[in-house]
Amino acid sequence: MFFERPDSGELAVLVHLELPQSAELDDPREFEELVLSAGGDPVDFLTGQRSSPHSKFFIGTGKLEELQALVAQHEAELVIFNHELSPSQERNLEKELQCRVLDRTGLILDIFAQRARTHEGKLQVELAQLEHMSTRLIRGWTHLERQKGGIGLRGPGETQLESDRRLLRARIKTIQRRLEKVRKQRAQGRRARNRADIPTVSLVGYTNAGKSTLFNSITNAGVFAQDQLFATLDPTMRRIGLPDVGPAVLADTVGFISNLPHRLVESFRATLEEAASADLLLHIIDAADDERQRNIEQVELVLAEIDAAEIPALKVYNKIDLMPEMEPRIDRDDLGRPVAVWLSAQDMQKQAEGTEILFSALAELLTDDIVHESIWLAANMGSLRAGLYRHNAVLNEEYHPDGTCELEIRLPEVDFKKLLSAENVSYEDIRSQQDGQSEIQQLAV
Predict the structure, then answer these.
(1) 388: which residues sit within 8 A by CB, 6+ positions away?
(2) Which one of 105, 326, 361, 364 has the lowest number of neighbouring Cβ atoms within 10 Å?
(3) Do 426 and 420 form a contact (C-beta atoms < 8 A)?
(4) Superfamily of domain covering 196-366
(5) pLDDT score for 445
(6) What are phi and psi of 82, to 5 degrees?
């Protein structure tokens, strides 16, 4: 049977079991935050331990009696499990408890349904919900499983349950076709950026790590940012300017969570492909979280699932304003390349230091080779000089009596070579000469 859902403020009893295979993955505190994010009102928390789930009720019969007493005591309208329940377990529990039962997947789907704003986001959530519902249809239509008898109703035909399943499959196919169109449009946009040599940087990280706050601090995009799980669902992209790199695209994506339902990963593949095809990932981490290392591992698991594990990543430890005596800084590896940045996205709007070190690290990772040297241009090389100025590559300029122009330049090597090729100028033609001695200095950055 189906149970009517109140408009808001549902009283919920939460259930969490310690199981050997999931003891390190399911955090009861995070589970409670999920319920609050969904708009639930947790009134009690039932915990326990089992070596394996009960096949009929997931919890044992003793815990089931405790749960019945809690539901009656609080007049709870909803029981939420911090685990994934089978359709039969949901039905059996609802029959015993006489209230709605929801598992972890259903809870996260409900939050996503509340937060979706764009047409694409709503389609992705609906697809995940329909695929989740398809295995649970029988719960709502047990009275219509058989074909009706009677005059005019006998003979072969379609049961109500079969009809609903057929309609459900048709709707799922329609949504999948629409999302495939979205996926192609996103791929076309990525190809255009690749042709223009515009790198893409995607923000990834555990939910509520501060991705949207950081995104707003950098781009002034006004993306909704709130201290709650899955505050951001719809992806947002903005263009930014990086030193030595030029324009780049910054993409804000949905947050990850431990045991993220596989249906969500599949349904949001069109969105997550932005992360999978990025040139660089900014892995945003809540530096003040006690579960910091666990959250990092969970994000890396999801990245592996969407084939993004091999993409270069820069760890950004956020919220250092909650850590006494921590200052913004860059951590480097043995080769001197940035591997982590420590900052506070909240403070970046007031102080430029966090933004400067982050942009500096991004520029180093997105640009393999920087040309920083002095070159001499003959009087007939004005077009090359103009090209260098278009790239904002000229740091200093000095004219000499013989008509030559000495320029100190700094720009990516790939752009420098393109300019030389376009002007049909060889590198030997612009080598800095003074008294016949070469003074070219290449500085590795």
Answers:
(1) 394, 407, 409, 411, 419
(2) 326
(3) yes
(4) P-loop containing nucleotide triphosphate hydrolases (3.40.50.300)
(5) 35
(6) -85, 40
